[in-house]
Specification:
Elements lengths: L1 H20 L3 H21 L2 H21 L2 H20 L1 E3 L12 H16 L1 H6 L6 E6 L6 H12 L3 E4 L1 H4 L6 H16 L1 E6 L2 H4 L9 H19 L3 E8 L17 E4 L5 H12 L10 H7 L5 H21 L10 H10 L6 H14 L3
Parallel strand pairs: 2-5, 2-6, 3-4, 4-5
Antiparallel strand pairs: 1-3
């Protein structure tokens, strides 16, 4: 489909060339601008190769417009294209497919997320009558591997909203003023969608506690982010800001105030029932032999995160496959309970008691679940 759009864009650019050679300036500019619109569409959704072609051709159109029209016309076209290009280039936009039903355990966390995010956005009329705002900010914090990113994706999927992923890597720039500009463009892009989810991955890195040793770029980015954030609160935009962090104590205290991250939700390592559910999720599509005792697996993995349990299942599968290959494909079997028990001994939990104590202390001080 994008190849057809590219062909149509090239056709319009060629028509512009014909009119240009005939001295018909207005018609030439009209065709070049039509071509620009199509090149922008390809740059948004096309393959990487087509994006490169579209970008080059679009700038070629702009150069030709410049030769035909005054500076203001060229600047308008150029700024429009650059705005589209930046928005596509650095904002990672996903269309998550995971739903809450795909997540094992965490029922309490999921219900809190639904009450804060999903229900008010899907039933805005009743929420408005009760004075409950749709959108806002939610911080998910807890040990690595507990499912914070998956929960954020599930929120976007449940409400059917565009999902923008930002982190220091795609916000920070070496050019003076560019980082702040990117923050501003992010919120402008989200506003255009009407309803959107902005997910701040590693929030403590993008919104760190401000100190005298902070870089000059971060000193400008954090205030700019807070200004834009306050702006969506005041103009009633249906934009939900979700943050995830393993180190909530490293965040700037300004983002922990109400009307910013006004809901702080601790995502703990899974409990007994959740561990059972997670084992079932990661084994349901794998070939297994014999009865799997999920109660025993859950009992033996106390303190394991969801990522740790996934690693156990993956390790067991790899061991079985290795046996299959080394036997010359003569031993053909699925994953057994013994394989899972052996894998547990090879995969230790990634979270320590000391780690859990720090989260408990933060929750007692700031937790607003």
């Amino acid at each position: 489909m994008h190849e057809l759009i590219l062909a149509e864009a090239n056709k319009k650019k060629m028509r512009g060339d014909v009119f240009r050679s005939q001295g018909k300036k207005e018609k030439a500019v009209h065709e070049y601008l039509k071509a620009l619109e199509l090149y922008r569409e390809i740059h948004k959704k096309g393959s990487p190769a087509l994006k490169d072609i579209a970008k080059y051709s679009a700038h070629e159109c702009i150069r030709k417009i410049k030769s035909l029209e005054n500076h203001s016309m060229e600047e308008a076209a150029k700024q429009s294209l650059e705005s589209e290009t930046h928005a596509v280039d650095w904002i990672l936009r996903e269309k998550p497919k995971v739903r809450f039903s795909d997540i094992g355990g965490l029922e309490g966390v999921i219900e809190e997320l639904k009450m804060k995010t999903v229900y008010p956005l899907l039933d805005q009329d009743k929420a408005r009558k009760l004075g409950i705002e749709a959108g806002g900010g939610v911080l998910l914090y807890g040990p690595p591997g507990t499912g914070k990113t998956t929960l954020a994706k599930a929120v976007a999927s449940e409400v059917g909203a565009p999902f923008y992923v930002i982190n220091p890597g795609n916000i920070m720039s070496k050019w003076v003023g560019e980082s702040e500009k990117r923050v501003k463009m992010l919120f402008e892009e989200a506003r255009r969608q009407g309803m959107a989810v902005i997910f701040i991955d590693d929030a403590d890195s993008l919104l760190p506690r401000r100190t005298s040793g902070m870089s000059t770029v971060m000193r400008r980015v954090v205030p700019q982010f807070l200004v834009e954030w306050d702006g969506i609160q005041s103009d009633g935009s249906k934009i939900l800001i979700l943050g995830a962090t393993n180190m909530p104590w490293a965040l700037d205290p300004a983002v922990l105030r109400p009307r910013r991250f006004d809901k702080l939700i601790y995502v703990p390592p899974p409990d007994f029932e959740a561990r059972k559910a997670i084992f079932k999720i990661h084994l349901k599509d794998r070939e297994c032999d014999g009865d799997i005792d999920f109660d025993e697996l859950a009992e033996l993995t106390e303190g394991y995160t969801g990522a740790d349990i996934e690693a156990v299942c993956r390790k067991a599968a790899e061991n079985v496959y290795r046996e299959y290959i080394k036997s010359g494909k003569t031993i053909d079997r699925g994953i057994s309970m013994a394989d899972l028990l052996a894998a547990i001994t090879e995969v230790p939990p990634s979270v320590t008691e000391e780690d859990l104590k720090k989260y408990e202390e933060f929750t007692q001080r700031f937790g607003r679940m």
